[in-house]
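> example.struct
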């Protein structure tokens, strides 16, 4: 094979492509460094080496993107890797916290609905502090300090979430051999997560409904639709017109928390809200038409201001309020759970496997009765007698 005693840019430029195939030109002063010239004029730097007794070849880069001097530098780096027993042709896994975090997000979290929240919390709380450090240097004291910083701001729930994210990430890294132990294991939690039991009273429900009227589109009617349907905030916030057919919201598994398709019948009251909504593209509730509404925190602050309710509440409390209201209306538990999209409780285990009835008619009747109840409260009239919703025969 041809060798070039002094590999320079001038010498490389003079090399002519062969009539057919390709020719390897070896740099005499850098053992294993090869410039492969192809018949089409392509010139690529290669490094030939042995690892574990087996010959290997790796491509460094193309010429002239990589000049001779850069090729010599790449040769030195690759040769040093071989000397220490590492394969330079195999991408090395990240060992710093930021790199491992990025890989974890891609390989373990990308398909989760909560991936955006996980990334935001981690990038806000720990990546700026630990990003440059080796992940194996992060110990229990570091973890506790990070969690305590969040808890000390009074954000107990966020501290619990951070605890869970870190535990899962380090457990994933342990499984892939990146770390030898999970520093979060057996670490005390910042607090026990509070189980909420807040249910809005009739007067509070009316105050929130009227506050939503004052807020106006898009968050106002979106909030009212939450009250009438029992759906989750993200299900209504990202609702598309194409998901509504024949008076029913059709949510695919990708749009629900449990990953199961979910049908939500719309009462006449809910349909009237949608009929008055502005059309700006496919999203039902949107600012500019290109994306769904997201800034619920500001909308919730507006609801608080206009409703002037003494006891704090969160948007998720609407679901508990609806479940309680349906119970008062005599709705069977199975129907209520079907409305809320629950797959546990009475629909869990073996019952959930063999009982596939979708309760479509029962859900529609229950939500129509609930809508009538809400509107009677809003309009200040005594609710009429509501017959209990009959269960499946």
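> example.seq
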């Amino acid at each position: 094979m041809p060798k070039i005693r002094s590999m320079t840019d001038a010498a490389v430029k003079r090399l002519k492509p062969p009539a057919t195939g390709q020719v390897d030109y070896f740099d005499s002063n850098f053992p294993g460094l090869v410039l492969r010239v192809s018949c089409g004029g392509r010139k690529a730097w290669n490094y030939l080496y042995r690892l574990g007794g087996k010959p290997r070849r790796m491509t460094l880069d193309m010429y002239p993107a990589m000049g001779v001097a850069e090729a010599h530098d790449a040769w030195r780096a690759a040769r040093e890797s071989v000397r220490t027993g590492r394969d330079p042709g195999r991408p090395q896994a990240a060992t710093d916290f930021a790199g491992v975090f990025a890989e974890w997000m891609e390989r373990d979290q990308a398909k989760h609905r909560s991936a955006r929240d996980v990334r935001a919390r981690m990038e806000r709380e720990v990546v700026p502090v630990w990003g440059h450090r080796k992940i194996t240097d992060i110990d229990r004291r570091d973890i506790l300090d990070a969690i305590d910083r969040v808890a000390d701001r009074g954000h107990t729930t966020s501290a619990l979430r951070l605890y869970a994210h870190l535990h899962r990430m380090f457990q994933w890294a342990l499984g892939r051999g990146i770390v030898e132990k999970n520093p979060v294991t057996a670490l005390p939690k910042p607090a026990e997560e509070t189980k909420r039991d807040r249910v809005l009273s009739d007067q509070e429900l009316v105050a929130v409904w009227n506050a939503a009227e004052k807020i106006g589109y898009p968050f106002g009617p979106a909030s009212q639709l939450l009250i009438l349907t029992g759906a989750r905030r993200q299900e209504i916030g990202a609702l598309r017109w194409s998901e509504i057919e024949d008076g029913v919201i059709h949510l695919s598994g990708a749009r629900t928390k449990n990953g199961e398709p979910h049908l939500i019948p719309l009462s006449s009251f809910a349909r009237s809200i949608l009929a008055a909504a502005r059309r700006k593209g496919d999203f039902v509730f949107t600012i500019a038409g290109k994306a769904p509404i997201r800034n619920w925190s500001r909308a919730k602050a507006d609801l608080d201001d206009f409703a002037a309710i003494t006891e704090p509440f969160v948007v998720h409390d609407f679901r508990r309020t609806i479940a309680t209201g349906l119970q008062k209306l005599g709705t069977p538990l199975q129907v209520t759970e079907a409305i809320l999209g629950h797959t546990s409780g009475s629909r869990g285990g073996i019952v959930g496997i063999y009982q596939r009835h979708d309760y479509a008619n029962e859900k529609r009747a229950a939500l129509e009765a609930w809508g009538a109840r809400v509107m009677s409260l809003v309009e200040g009239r005594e609710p009429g007698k509501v017959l209990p919703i009959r269960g499946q025969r």
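> remarks
Residues 346-355, 385-393 have pLDDT under 50 and may be disordered.
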